Amino acid sequence: MISRDDVLRVARLARLALTDAEVETMREQLSAILSHIDALKAVDTAGVEPTSHAVPQFNVMREDEPRPCFPVEEMLANAPDRAGDFFRVPRIIEE
Amino acid sequence: MSTYDVVIGLEVHAQLTTRTKMFCGCPATFGAPPNTQTCPVCQGMPGTLPVINRRAVEYGVRTALAFNCRVNGACRFARKHYYYPDMPKNFQISQYEEPLAEEGSLEIDLADGRSHRVGIQRLHLEEDVGKLVHEGTLETAQSSLVDFNRAGVPLMETVSKPELRSPEEAAAYLRAFRAVLVYLGVCDGNMEEGSLRCDANISLKPAGASTLGTKVEIKNMNSFRNVQRALEFEVTRQAEALDRGQRIVQETRLWDADRGYTRSMRSKEFAHDYRYFPEPDLVPLKLEPRWIDEIRGALPELPRQRRQRFAASYGLPAYDAALLTQSRALAEYFEAAVREFPQPKLVSNWVMSELLRELPGDDERAIEQATVTPSRLAGLLRLIDDGTISGKIAKSVFETMVRSGEDASTIVRRDGLTQVADAGALAAMVASAIAANPRAVDDYRKGKTAAGKAIVGQVMKASGGRANPAMVSKLVEEELEKLTKR
Amino acid sequence: MPATIHELTAAYGRGDTTPSRVTEEFLARIAKLDDKIGAYLTVTADQARAAARASDERYRQGRPLGPLDGAPITLKDVFCTKGVRTTCGSKILESFVPPYDATVTERLAKAGCVMLGKSNMDEFAMGSSTEHSALKVTRNPWDLARVPGGSSGGPAAAVAAGLAAGGLGTDTGGSIRQPAAFCGVVGLKPTYGRVSRYGLVAFASSLDHPGPFGADVTDTALLLGAIAGHDPMDATSIDAPVPDYAGALERDVRGLRLGVPNEYFIDGMDPEVEAAVRAAIDVLKGLGATLERVSLPATPHALATYYVIAPAEASSNLARYDGVKYGLRVPGHDLIEMESRTRAAGFGAEVRRRIMLGTYVLSAGYYDAYYGQAQKVRSLVRRDFDAAFGRVDLIVAPTTPNVPFKHGEKADPIAMYLNDVFTIPADMAGVPAVSVPCGFTRGGLPIGLQLIGRALDEATVLRAARAYERATDWHTRRPNVG
Question: Which of C102, C319, C371 faces B47 most closely, judged by CB atoms?
Fold first, then answer.
């Protein structure tokens, strides 16, 4: 029920490289899961508000007061690649 | 070339002048060394959570009210997903289906004196992204560098309705829009530094047609002038293409200011799939009407209203009114000075020429901190008014006031600049000058009345500029008349 | 066999032993036994010793920080610990060292706890057996061929095997309660927002709940008391007073109204589990609680709803792992290739599956039918609980439909998902729920009893759990690991 094209499109959106074999396995597994999930469509939810927060709260905000920044070394300590105090990434090709 | 209607909508992103970022407590200032103004939250580190900056919401409401928008008391944030290295979480916290405000307008004044009301579709809050530095250009760079200092700075996005009908109107809208934001104190309006950014959507349709043409998005216009130039280019490009029967491609084009054209980014015929959903880490807002009313009550008089009031109640020409209201601080400076020296046109002249020679009129802080305060300016103008000094001397006194911070009276007294207005003293100087310039007298006798001016000049020079010019002129004319009529 | 936290800290107070001595015992036990159990990903021996020494000093001066001072605990490796690697059971964060502590990490340290190390989990908390950890296998101390449950299998196994006196886990679809049931320990999922999520590496933001594991209810209550409470760094955390959970445990349950939900006793569930749970319900009745049948009709839809919402939120929360700022990077010719290869190599199969599923259900055209609809069905699940709690004070049910299964037994994803049918609804509604040991199968495998309460009513949940515990001795049994 989910096509190979769907899988490729979604994999692109999710930045996941999949081999051809993986695409097929993923397609089968997702199709199986989705067919279970499809049962939801039959549930009558007319007039029901969606729940985004299990325990409703509103208006949680903070004051515009500065907090100390973290030292740049700590922020870059886990960087896979850096140049000085910058993170470095490979060339960006527009999609 | 057929005639086309131009349809333009502007999307403006304004960085808010809050002290801290939208969702964390890092400072929101410009220009710090890379990655020194960050924390785990704005770096999108695992486990971190956003918390809304109340002042950013306040500034958003304030702006929405200034643009006559309907403020949605119930609104929420949403995640907008796409991958780009300047976005730490690879989603941006923004607002989608429930924005802060909708359905407002901005009235703009055009060069020919007409005005035009432009609709504002929506206004919402979101977080800014970091900065990318490319070694070379985006196209040629083998790698890019990322700085997250700017990531998380509060942004207010405003989308106009497609009701701008020319590149000129678009630039006028942007100017007026910026002026309101600066007036409100929510944004510093600096396009060069990127605190105010503008993208445009432009399409053409045959004159009078009802269906809109294909719209093209234009980006990378970093000044009012570039907005106008880029859109003018686009109008020409699209019109020529349509004339040739070509289809306009729906795409994003970048303005290249150096080369003066727009060029296509990779074609984006399809829209991004942003997979919006309500931000689960933030609870919805239900803004209290009382708070919104408080904000409304504290709105300052806006630029356009003030300009109209200046023209009407001070009897100032439109040009003066526009210049004097370019910033809140300057307008307030003017009014404070007029309160003490109620001759608006004179105050206006001095503010426009002398004060604005020293300070940029749209620099709120510089005006507020000007050494020549409105009171001091008024004091100087009083000295001219009561004849103590001449207008010309006053100009140099003003310069001294700027440098030394003293008031006019002190300077005049100390430097002995008091105008000579004693008739007897002046008469003596006039007599000397006439005696020393027989040729001028001759010229005058021959009918060259301009020769009188030379005598006046001599008297002014001899008096070190302190003679009262009006009196000198009169005395010289009288004397020369007497001499030549004998 | 090591004692409970409250017994240990009482002993510290009396001077019978010291935090340092006990810490060494635990470290020795870990060194001896964890090869078999596989609970720990990182043992923080030096840090533990330093914390223990500081605790020693406080007891020496007669000024302990409280009932948790010197308690040796473990944190599921999903909680950020400053300077200590935090892997989330994943290759993509295998060497990630956070520069900051989660709020719960800070609060436990402030209470004087001694952190022995970070424990194993299903990768990014996605799983019900800990088999999806990319880094290690954890075995059930009661039967090493079987799983400890998941995703908090590490802390549950550690507490069960005496490799920690208490632990902290997270529950998104059942990941505290189910491993607690499988390992024969107590595990509590608090009300959503009762405990701060700041520093908890997010899986599904609206469903993640940090919570305690204890060898008994008292320990669990003590740990909850230390971590609960409002946190300004978490906008979803609840600003409500924290009661003295441990201090209110010894009250009886006479007159407490218990609801027995029809939908939690289903065909196909293990008959020994059903029998043990029904016997437990009888015990509670014998203690003076009243019983009533209740219906939670949306229960059959809860699983599907969960498997829309959780993957959707997960796909979003995990988008940040791209090899740019932290974690694994697999090289590529350009950014997209680098990111795609990094994520493919760094995430295991279950995580990739859920990211794909989540991305799909959020993608254009599918949002309303899936995510939008699921959030509405979620409201129906909440309504069920609201209605039931109009008539009863607690809902009593099995924690799982099954008993600990063998490693590799549930290879099919959907079979794995079915482990969570009884635990998922409480996550969806955000209400507090605990699992306490209530028996063993003939084969000696633990069985868990679940008590579910009203939002913010952990006190009643814990009180009933304690009353049951007082009347039984399941919680005193320990696996024989050596």
Answer: C102
Considering the candidates C20, C55, C129, C175, report the single residue annotated as catalytic.
Answer: C175
Decide if pLDDT at B79 tops 80. yes
Domains identified in chain C, total number: 2
Confidence of residue C144 (pLDDT cuts 50, 70, 90): very high
Residue C295 annotated to the active site: no
Q: Which of residues C315, C348, C373 is at a domain's end?
A: C373
* Mean pLDDT, range C310-329, rounded to an integer: 98
Would you say residue C152 lies in a domain? yes
Please indicate if any CB of chain C lies within 8 Å of the CB of A42: no
C151 is catalytic: yes
Residue showing tokens 């605190």: B195
Domain total in chain A: 1
Chain C residues within 8 A of B35 when measuring between CB atoms: none
Look at domain B423-485 and name its CATH class. Answer: mainly alpha
**Chain centroid, CA C348 distance in Å:** 21
Eight-class DSSP state of C326: S
Q: The pTM is what? A: 0.91
pLDDT tens, residue by residue, B407-439: 999 998 888 788 777 778 888 888 888 888 888
Question: Are C245 and C166 part of one and the same domain?
Answer: yes
> Could you give the maximum distance between any two Cα atoms of chain A, in Å?
57
Question: Is A79 inside a domain boundary?
Answer: no
Nearest chain B alpha carbon to A70: B39
How far apart are the C-alpha atoms of C142 and B413, rounded to whole Å? 101
Do C59 and C207 fall within a single domain? yes
Residue C95 annotated among the catalytic residues of the structure: no
User: Which residues of chain A make contact with B20, given a CB cutoff of 8 A?
Assistant: 64-67
How do residues B305-335 score in pLDDT, each as one tens digit?
899 999 999 999 988 998 898 888 899 999 9
Residues linked to residue B75 through DSSP beta bridges, in sequence order: B285
Q: Which amino acid is at C324?
A: V
Contact residues on chain A for C232, CB-CB shorter than 8 A: 62
Tell me: pLDDT of A67 over 70. Answer: yes
Residue C239 located in a structural domain: yes
**In chain C, what percentage of residues exceed pLDDT 90?**
96
Residues C39, C171 within the same domain: yes
Residue C282 in domain: no
Task: Express each pLDDT in B195-242 by its tens digit.
Answer: 999 999 999 999 989 899 999 999 999 999 999 999 999 999 999 999
Interface contact B73, partner A, CB < 8 A:
no
- Segment C55-60 shows an average pLDDT of 98
According to DSSP, residue C22 is labeled: H
C433 touches chain A (CB under 8 A): no
Mean predicted confidence (pLDDT) in B16-45: 96
Count of CB atoms situated within 10 Å of the CB of C428: 30
Burial B90-109 (b: 16+ CB within 10 A, else e): bbbbbbbebbbbbbbebebb
Domain-embedded: residue A47: no
- The amino acid sitting at B260 is G
- 3-state secondary structure (DSSP) of residue C407: coil
Higher pLDDT, C217 or B386: C217
* Domain boundary, last residue among C324, C358, C373: C373
C49 domain residue, yes or no = yes
Are C93 and C228 in the same domain?
A: yes
Neighbours of C122 (CB within 10 A): 32
How far is residue C452 CA from its own chain's centroid? 15
Q: Is A36 on the interface with C (CB under 8 A)?
A: yes
